[in-house]
UniProtKB/TrEMBL annotation:
Catalyzed chemical reaction(s): L-histidinol phosphate + H2O = L-histidinol + phosphate
UniProt KW keywords: Hydrolase, Magnesium, Metal-binding
Function: Catalyzes the dephosphorylation of histidinol-phosphate to histidinol, the direct precursor of histidine.
Originating organism: Vreelandella maris
E.C. no: 3.1.3.15
Descriptive protein name: Histidinol-phosphatase
PANTHER family: PHOSPHATASE RV3661-RELATED, PHOSPHOSERINE PHOSPHATASE
MF terms (GO), sorted A to Z: histidinol-phosphatase activity; metal ion binding
Stored Pfam families: HAD
Amino acid sequence: MSLAIFDLDNTLLSIDSDHAWGEFLLEQGAVDPVAYREANERFMADYNAGTLDMAAFLEMALKPLADNTPEQLAAWHQQFMVSKIEPSILPKAEELLARHRTKGDTLLIITATNRFITAPIAERLGVDHLIAVNPEVEQGRYTGRVSGTLSYREGKVTRLEQWLKDQDLSMEGAWFYSDSHNDLPLLEIVEHPVAVDPDDTLRNVAEERQWRIMTLRD
């Protein structure tokens, strides 16, 4: 039995759930229709380019959590799961998860998208373990700030190392599936790195290092 680690956005899902949540909020009229859309698109481009300012992005992304009640957020998220997430779950991704589950592997999703968005998605996929950006909560409401280390780029390694200690698990024989060059710090330290429908930068690195390249979209 080994650890099977999965990126979420554009790996197990055909979309970026963070970006899709922003689009959903726009559709609900919950955010400024001009400024928020422009920022959402700009930050998505920066992420793809590997130049994302996570602090600036999270200031925008977490503000709607602080501005709305838990009840409203929960209702929105239920709609979001139906309209955005369900259609984006890749059947071959579910098959991949099932193969690792059958082998008795420990399944873990690690993502730079915040836990409010991703915890219900991990539950839907049947993955018990999740490392995500943790929005700060005080007295039952989101503050708009972040708690702890960001699970982004090198931060994914930091968070994973702490999680392994807490779970008394090791990286021996571990797999990591990701689409993004932003995940190279983690891909480089696992025994089985797999590039899944990779961006151009990750594809080039994977080919050079003879990592496995696969698609979940056919």
